[in-house]
Write a structure and sequence with these properties.
mainly alpha; 5 helices
């Protein structure tokens, strides 16, 4: 029972029932999902090392490092998604938050490599997302 301060009498108090549509807890990521994220992250980390080495060998360490940085930053997106899925926040909201955050970080780091190399960091982010999507497709084909 909730009483309002301007009522002197308990019989004039206002009773309010709160009906809550509580969120049910989301399941923890399965072992398959964690393996998928781990494999995609390992592949992106390996691709980042290759991109950096190719950039150095070709004499373009800045662009190679920018692409490698984008791949490395993008590789953490799957792990972030796996952790955020357990929160009682809509998936769309966490997805937008991750995309905006990773893109902002990518642009900021790309500017450190020079304005001409920003697009390479964003390209690396995009490639890592494609790698994650291909890994998810491969895993879903394996399950069925």
């Amino acid at each position: 029972m909730i009483s309002l301060p301007w009522f002197d009498s308990p019989r004039l108090a206002v009773v309010v029932e709160v009906i809550s549509e509580g969120t049910s807890p989301r399941p923890a990521p399965s072992a398959n999902a964690l393996r998928l994220v781990r494999n995609a992250a390992i592949f992106c980390a390996g691709a980042a090392v290759v991109a950096a080495l190719v950039g150095i060998v070709l004499g373009h360490a800045g662009p190679g490092g920018a692409l490698a940085t984008g791949l490395a930053i993008g590789s953490i997106n799957g792990a972030l998604a796996a952790r955020l899925i357990a929160l009682p926040i809509p998936f769309l909201a966490t997805s937008l938050l991750r995309i905006i955050t990773l893109s902002t970080i990518g642009i900021a780091i790309g500017l450190a490599f020079g304005l001409a190399n920003v697009w390479l960091v964003i390209l690396g982010l995009g490639i890592s997302q494609v790698v994650l999507a291909v890994a998810a497709l491969r895993e879903s084909m394996r399950i069925t």
